[in-house]
Amino acid sequence: MSILVDNQTRVVVQGITGRDGAFHAQQMAQYGTKVVAGVTPGKGGQEVAGIPVYNTVWQAAEEEKANTSVLYVPSAFASDAIYEAVDAGIQLVVCITEGIPTLEMVKVMQYLSAGQARLIGPNCPGIITPGQAKVGIMPGHIFQPGRVGVLSRSGTLTYEVVYQLTQAGIGQSTSIGLGGDPIIGFRFVDGLELFEADPETDVVVLIGEIGGTDEEEAADYVSQHVSKPVVAFIAGLTAPPGKRMGHAGAIISGGSGTAEEKIEALEAAGIPVASKPADIVGLVKKAME
Amino acid sequence: MKVHEYQAKEIFAKYGIPVPTGQVAQSPQEVRQAAAEIGCPVMIKSQVHVGGRGKAGGIKMAQTPEEAETLGAEILGMKIKGLEVGKVLVTQAVDIDSEAYLGVIVDRRSQKPVVMVSAAGGVDIEEVARETPEKIHKLTVDPLFGLLPFQARKLVFRIYEDPKIASQAAKILQKLYRAFWECDASLIEINPLVVTSQGEVWAVDAKFNEDDNALFRQSWIAQMRDRQAEIPEELEAREKGLSFVKLDGTVGCVVNGAGLAMGTMDLIKHYGGEPANFLDIGGSSSPEKVTAAMRILLRDANVKVVLFNIFGGITRCDDVANGLVSAIKEVGVDLPIVIRLTGTNADEGKEILRRNDLVAVDSMEEVVQKAIQMVGA
User: Fold this and answer.
1) pLDDT surpasses 90 at B2
2) Is residue B245 domain-shared with residue B369, that is, in the same domain?
3) Which of A62, A162, A228, B254 has its CA 20 to 30 A from that of A1?
4) Mean pLDDT of all residues belonging to chain B
């Protein structure tokens, strides 16, 4: 009951000997994720909480059959780590790292377009299939297995929404944090395509925010390709133009990327938009009837 | 990060883009001296990080050094959209035959750089984009190849007929793209690109925004930061690792995570209140960050209540609670504080608050409604 990750996913943690990498490697393993290897160049042969460390992703893929990587690598080295993972045949790269230069990501996206590997992030909380695998930094205990797919550009706002769903007894199939940067790999339309094809997902929740046009593209995609019900929430109605609201990607520029435009586009595509986070639960319940 | 026009012109000059001679001045006497050295007529241009300087009276032409001094005295110290003018650029005035626009940004949809040119220069380009988008010619650049010479020609021949002028403009456009790419700009613009009556092409104004994420590898641009030209609270917040934007309302907000912070602002508005700010204390929030956040918020006299909305993930609720308690002791808070704590170590956090006579609620709805009641009362 999931997309992209499940209990068969074999995760390699890039940057596992760093503070965040070591902590979250253990957290992921405790959640039940198959964390099969870590990589830090020059630290091959060591172990972190019983997880073997390799010098290269290529070795981790070869020796431990890792097929998914998660990055806790400092921003200056993150793009190289993404290239390395893709080159080693990793199918899904989850980049938690924040602060990667935008033009560096422009190059990364160009590189990825030549192959099949997917990138989630950067600057994202990661992906979780509740009860099976957590690849990222989200607090696992607020999630519950179920049939609602969640796609979000924000971290803590996702936790807020998921927490309310779980409290209402509504579980999630897979929840993906897409990241707060202007250039990200996996976008709403990619998630919608996978959830539409996933027999274990009944409803999709989109959590968007100001900046860019990903929500508008999602609205367009839903009206053409998605038969499952989709509900949405957009943050940033009160955000002033020209100010970056924390996320590099959350900025209203050139009079576009406003919450109003996004809400209008989603509603025009028949997607109900919650006026506050607490109303999402009601919209999901209604969609499941 | 924004840089001033004179700094953007330094970057341009480094890339061989022709800019009029200019000098920065910080006093009327310096303006006079600069005008005399450059040769009148000169333009005196306020250096502040906002658009619409001309309309606000922040750009003037002087015919003599004496007039330059008088106008310099008027412009220096004036406020444009709340920002005080501390510096002016005194620059050679050029006679204008035509004005165009050149710019480069990253297009989020195609995830590639886009070069834009328009014959409608000298005016607000966003207005042109809204009202007459057909006047802007765009070209998506393959980042692996950069802007090729023929692509630059293809664009400039759409706005210039004279091959001599087009050839100069094409070279400028390629240099502009190279500066954008090599310097990690998030936006680079020449508006206007002027053709003089002698057929020379000049970048008369220059705009350059740097990608904050790239400052670590562009230290020479990072050094251009003008701390005096920034909103003091936003500057202080950034130095403490907080993300802060000042707004005009009465409900001060402290939230972890950008999306949740925006969601909190929206909910305040939804229930009839007005947020005083956007404030994201970030992921791994130490008690020191919370103290810094409180100091910044309390300086705003409009703030009538402080609202904490914390959903612990990486952020630990006990860290936030400790920070809050020490902030109250250190800063001396006499405003009401409403708190929501959920997630990692929420129980420990609530216990810390309870020992200090503070109460936390569980839901975002509840805490926002509570804050609104207090503002209304």
Assistant:
1) yes
2) yes
3) A62
4) 93
Determine whether the interchain pair A277/B267 forms a contact, defined as Cβ–Cβ distance below 8 Å: yes
Q: Do A107 and B143 touch (CB under 8 A)?
A: yes
CB atoms A102 and B106 under 8 Å:
yes
Same domain, B214 and B245: no
Residue B144 C-alpha, separation from nearest chain A C-alpha, in angstroms = 7
In chain B, the residue whose alpha carbon lies closest to the alpha carbon of A242 is: B50
Q: Which residues of A touch B261 (CB under 8 A)?
A: 245-246
Quote ipTM for the complex. Answer: 0.93
Helix residue spans in chain B (DSSP H) = 5-14, 28-38, 65-75, 125-131, 149-156, 163-182, 219-222, 232-239, 258-270, 287-298, 317-327, 346-355, 364-376
| Angle, CA A143 vertex, CA A34 and CA A186 arms, to 5° | 70
pLDDT above 70 coverage of chain A, percent:
100
* pLDDT tops 80 at residue B284: no
Nearest CA in chain B to A23: B314
Residues B155, B239 within the same domain: no
Please write the tens of the pLDDT for every residue from B238-272: 888 899 999 999 999 999 999 999 999 999 999 99
- Interchain proximity A278–B260, CB inside 8 Å: no
Classify residue B11: in a domain, yes or no. Answer: no
CA distance A180 to chain B (A): 9
> A79-93 pLDDT, tens per residue?
999 999 999 999 999
**Residue in chain B lying closest to A152 (CA):** B259
Q: Is the pLDDT of residue B44 over 70?
A: yes
A163 with B280: Cβ contact below 8 A: no
Pair A153, A257 in one domain: yes
The answer to whether the beta carbons of residues B263 and A247 sit under 8 Å apart is: no
A107 part of a folded domain:
yes
Query: Do A62 and A96 belong together in one domain?
Result: yes
Q: Which of A106, A180, A213 sits opposite B109 (nearest CB)?
A: A213
Sheet with A126-129, edge to edge strand ranges: A133-136, A126-129, A172-177, A145-152, A203-209, A230-235
Both B251 and B314 in one domain: the answer is yes
- pLDDT-based confidence at B50, cuts 50/70/90? confident
Chain B neighbors of A138, CB-CB under 8 A: 313
- Count contacts between A and B (CB, < 8 Å): 172
**In the predicted structure, residue B311 carries a pLDDT above the cut 70:** yes
Same domain? B214 vs B248: no
Q: For B333-351, what is the mean pLDDT? A: 91
Interchain pair B313, A156: CB under 8 A: yes
Same domain, B202 and B276: no
Contact B191, B125 (CB under 8 A): yes
Residue B117 and residue B192 in one domain: yes
Residues of A annotated as catalytic are 247
Residue B56's domain spans which residues?
21-92
Looking at the structure, do residues B110 and B217 belong to the same domain, yes or no? yes
Range of the domain at A215: 139-288
Which residues are bridge partners to A100 per DSSP?
Answer: none
From B126, which residue of chain A is nearest by alpha-carbon distance? A254
Q: What is the CATH number of the domain that holds A30?
A: 3.40.50.720
Total number of domains constituting chain A: 2
Structure tokens at B73: 């005295």
CATH of the domain at B243: 3.40.50.261
> Chain-centre distance of CA A239, in angstroms?
24
Percent residues over pLDDT 70 in chain B: 99
Q: Which residues of A172-190 are buried (b: 16+ CB within 10 A; e: fewer)?
A: bbbbbbbbbbbbbbbbbbb
Shortest distance, CA A9 to any CA of chain B (angstroms): 23
Residues 6+ apart with CB under 8 A from A80: none
Residue B344 located in a structural domain: yes
Is B12 within the bounds of a domain? Answer: no
User: How far does chain B reach from its first CA to its final CA, in angstroms?
Assistant: 40
Flag whether B110 is in a domain. Answer: yes
Chain B nearest-CA distance from A65, in A, is 29
Mutate to test the interface with A, among B108, B124, B254, B340 (most CBs of A within 10 A): B108
Q: Which of A139, A152, A277 sits opposite B313 (nearest CB)?
A: A139
